[in-house]
């Protein structure tokens, strides 16, 4: 969309909180049922990228919030003050229902705008977004034009200001451009999108975990070292045994590059990570793996490819009731178009695939059942183009394949 599009417009009022001048670094907040207003002080960051200098980027952590409570918050000074709200998640527990939206490879095209609108109007009403990477696509513009990071933030504000977006970094977040002197990977992304990685003993913001309601979410980085002895590898090896399925039955993994992909795009780019980590996913009975990167949609059956040992020749995916379902949902809108060239015939492990823009919903009902649906942009808001009931791998490991 052009820079003058209404979804990119800065808020009205002098120095209204977005990114221009330092302004106030205080957030005023209060719960819906309280008149007592509290304050939290944030930190302010700026960065330079080639000839671009960022505005003042504020990060503020609000602590000691009550579960399942609506909070209002104010940012800015006096005349330019802006008011938003969010609802905290329910207390962690095995049968706590919760609804996630799922998106990836969003960008800021007209298709991106439709995707976000469809998610907002979906009657399932997602309470948090699992975002599988590739945010702004600023790097598709000359010299990685970081103005496109500013416009993207204003574009997604209508959702991200009111509910959490749980990020993983994609290849378009790397912003590695030595030809213009930019040699620090992920510079814009890490200045703009902080994640609570230290809470899960991670040493970097690219891999971390979050507990929410009845779900345990593990975020991995396809573009950070993940081989043996690397920090990400050591962290994941220690993290998976920590998951208590009696507390958080649903184990969800986010990454950017898919492990199973029957499109002729990015073929086998996730293969080395799959070889490293797939046995762990099967051992720990991961329920669902979400990825993006391929600009289309695909859902797998429950399969694994872990029997191969160089000698035995067993190197085809096979049905595996302990394995996750792999979902590729890199169809948010991007700027590069749809990946519509598929391998033929469709592999047996591929349950459903389609080159259309859209988003998905993962609606956890209790410890045993979750309802999943994928929604095309060119359908009505409530239409399910693909759907299935997920049966929890730990509490109810029944075959729910579409065969």
Commentary on this structure:
It is a single chain. By secondary structure, the chain is an alpha+beta fold. The chain is built from five helices and 23 strands. It has helices at 110-121, 147-160, 187-192, 231-239, 271-283; strands spanning 26-31, 38-41, 43-45, 48-49, 52-53, 57-59, 70-75, 82-87, 98-103, 128-131, 165-167, 208-212, 215-219, 250-254, 288-291, 297-300, 303-304, 318-319, 325-329, 350-354, 358-364, 369-376, 386-391. It is globular and about 70 Å long. It catalyses: a phosphate monoester + H2O = an alcohol + phosphate. Residues 20-88 form the Purple acid phosphatase N-terminal domain. It comes from Hibiscus sabdariffa (roselle). Residues 99-297 form the Calcineurin-like phosphoesterase domain.
Global morphology: globular
How many runs of DSSP E, i.e. beta strands?
23
Helix content class: 10-25%
What number is the mean pLDDT? Answer: 95
Distance between the termini: 41 Å
Features:
hydrolase, Metallo-depent_PP-like, 403 residues, seven-stranded mixed β-sheet, signal, alpha+beta, PAPs-like
Structure summarized in a few sentences:
This is Purple acid phosphatase. Helix content is 13%, strand content 26%. The chain has 403 residues and is an alpha+beta fold.
Topology, element by element:
Layout: E1 26-31, E2 38-41, E3 43-45, E4 48-49, E5 52-53, E6 57-59, E7 70-75, E8 82-87, E9 98-103, H1 110-121, E10 128-131, H2 147-160, E11 165-167, H3 187-192, E12 208-212, E13 215-219, H4 231-239, E14 250-254, H5 271-283, E15 288-291, E16 297-300, E17 303-304, E18 318-319, E19 325-329, E20 350-354, E21 358-364, E22 369-376, E23 386-391
Parallel strand pairs: 9-10, 10-11, 13-14, 14-15, 15-19
Antiparallel strand pairs: 1-2, 1-7, 3-6, 4-5, 7-8, 9-21, 12-13, 16-19, 16-20, 17-18, 21-22, 22-23
